[in-house]
Write a structure and sequence with these properties.
The complex is a heterodimer of chains A (about 120) and B (about 110). Chain A has about 120 residues and is mostly beta strands. Chain A is built from no helices and eleven strands. In chain A, strands 2, 4, 5, 9, 10 and 11 form a six-stranded mixed sheet that branches. In chain A, strand 7 and strand 8 form a beta hairpin. Chain A is globular. The termini of chain A are far apart. The radius of gyration of chain B is 13 Å and the shape is globular. Chain B has no helices and eleven strands. By secondary structure, chain B is mostly beta strands. The N and C termini of chain B lie far apart (about 35 Å). Classes of the chains: A mainly beta (about 120), B mainly beta (about 110).
Chain lengths: ~120, ~110
């Protein structure tokens, strides 16, 4: 079975500051890992994914995440926050490999960006 | 279509009524997933379709919930005898293959049971 823990249900940063959203996973098989973003009243948009290639993954909007097997972590970072980054972010794990994409999601982290 | 389309976007229904939620996946996508997003439970997997078959329906919370997919395209999620705890946002997603590399979500249907 797999699970995802997102540390911090709310994170607040100033515009221009570093964004760090934490995600730890548990999986009995090598996982595929994802970060999704959800803006108010919208569906989930894929930010980036790790699928066993490079451990440092770059996504859209300047976000990146690093897969650390030893720490079972997949933290999301962005060097400089923008007001438009305010949203809810979800980390997810898929232990089904390439053929089956059933995702287990974390509880989400709401990112607030202050001017 | 260009994206995953869900209808209606909002649905208010009385307790005990049946509701149908529709999902139009991206054209050519064989995999289709339904998830539920609620305040207390977060995002929960409901059911997975590959073509018209549902190899995994383990997430359906009770026998009041059912789903079908026809023509390898449109899917309908039906909730019978709705209860207040069914209030949530129901999200559909589709993928070209099994979805292991991630998929595209629709904007969801917000269901409110009063």
């Amino acid at each position: 079975a797999q699970s995802v823990t997102q540390l911090g249900s709310h994170v607040s940063v100033s515009e221009g500051a570093l964004v760090l959203l934490r995600c730890n996973y548990s999986s009995s098989v090598p996982p595929y890992l994802f970060w999704y973003v959800q803006y108010p009243n919208q569906g989930l948009q894929l930010l980036l994914k790790y699928t066993s290639a490079a451990t440092l993954v770059k996504g859209i909007n300047g976000f990146e995440a690093e897969f650390k097997k030893s720490e079972t972590s997949f933290h999301l970072t962005k060097p400089s926050a923008h007001m438009s980054d305010a949203a809810e972010y979800f980390c997810a794990v898929n232990a089904g490999g390439t053929s089956y994409g059933k995702l287990t999601f974390g509880q989400g982290t709401i990112l607030t960006v202050h001017p | 279509g260009a994206g995953v389309s869900q209808s209606p976007s909002n649905k208010v229904t009385e307790k005990g009524k049946d509701v149908e939620l529709r999902c139009d996946p991206i054209s050519g996508h064989t995999a289709l997933y339904w998830y539920r997003q609620s305040l207390g439970q977060g995002l929960e997997f409901l059911i997975y379709f590959q073509g018209n078959s549902a190899p995994d329906k383990s997430g359906l919370p009770s026998d009041r919930f059912s789903a079908e997919r026809t023509g390898g395209s449109v899917s309908t999620l039906t909730i019978q005898r709705t209860q207040q705890e069914d209030s949530a946002v129901y999200l559909c997603a589709s993928s070209q293959t099994g979805g292991g590399y991630g998929y595209t979500f629709g904007s969801g249907t917000r269901l409110t049971v009063v």
